[in-house]
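Journal club side-thread
Mid-discussion, someone asked how the predicted structure for our own chain would compare to the paper's figures. Pasting it here so we can look after the session.
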Amino acid sequence: MPKQEPFERVRNFDEVALGYPAEAAREEAARCLDCKKPGCRGGCPVGIDIPGFIRHIVEGDFAAGIRTIKQTNALPAVCGRVCPQEEQCEAGCILGKKGDTIAIGRLERFLADWEARQGPIEPPPAAAAIGMSVAIVGSGPAGITVAADLALRGYRITMFEALHEAGGVLTYGIPEFRLPKSIVRREVEYVQSLGVELRLDYIVGKTRTIDRLLESFDAVFVGAGAGLPWFLDIPGENLNGVYSANEFLTRCNLMRGYRFPAYDTPLKRAARVAVFGGGNVAMDSARTSLRLGAEEVHIVYRRGREELPARLEEVENAEEEGVIFDYLTLPVRLIGDQHGWLHELECLRMELGEPDDSGRRRPVPVEGSEFRLRMDASICAIGNSPNPLIPMTTPGLETGRRGNIVVADESTGLTSRERVWAGGDVVTGAATVISAMGAGRAAAQSIHQTLTGEPPHEPD
């Protein structure tokens, strides 16, 4: 797929990948073997008819292609950009045994972008109103999916969002250059066109509890995400210039820090930045720092390149843009100046030992290998847990060791509380957009079956 050159894109927040032109999309789609037993479809958490939409691209019937996707996926423009297709649908493509798999995600993005260029999106016909209502807590991928599925089945849906913009992690967590906010807004507007009511600045657990919602709604789905950041618990983490990735990316994305001075968001422009972690959030933080004017950005990661959990595409983009990767390096202390600002980072060299529970080789400190790096800011991107507000205000709602909501069965999302379902990062911890959407689809099926007594079925 064509994309901006590295020397250009590090100076702007425009989308890096530019998308397929129509002929390139049809050429790529034509490589599909249209297997009788497609492995790609089994790898999709929301069950998209992948061979079906690819077949429509080959035929040049793009309208039929996007309709096929939207039978099971309300967010194709988002999923086509940020989902790890290489680990899911594309991993099941038989062409991968001898060469390159079909670029399923890029083709999905092509159809979604084509639809957007045609003008206002025509919503599919919904079922007749059935006289029941569902409250959705959170407007991220899981909540949007439940809202769309149940709205098409005739439910009255109200979606409650704590922040001033909808989209959840799609809005506050993923940078503009990877997922433009205009795309998120368009997808949210599509769901609203199905009759979903959206209420912003509404903190469930504070403005109103789950129990109060159950007085007015037949069911509640909790898709509040995982917004409580983890830290390294090392000396100096209370210094100025030390951020969690949540805070840093929220200030840049939701609060428009990247559009300074049009938006005067309080965000220090640092010359030398260290990012702790090796996942997609770490790559996003590092690449954002470059675009904000940092002269030098380091990814400080305690394992090697082969163990990085980030998508290879995101790692390669960061490398092209000049991010420095300090592999086998462990931060042990943040050192401040006389004014309380971060000034230096003390680290240890590591070496890889035996594999741990994750299957990756465990990093072991090298004795006497301490060294220091001059740094003006650090960003901790090592993971998140759910915010404890909803469990604290919902008696009888079972939670796990890290504060995640426990569900009896991931295929239903039903919690320990009657008429309360949950799904996405609030259950699993930080995961992928498409896995949250898969949990949302499963919960929508279970809600419908429970409230109506009907067997689960696909919306028309």
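Post-session note: The first helix runs from residue 6 to 9.
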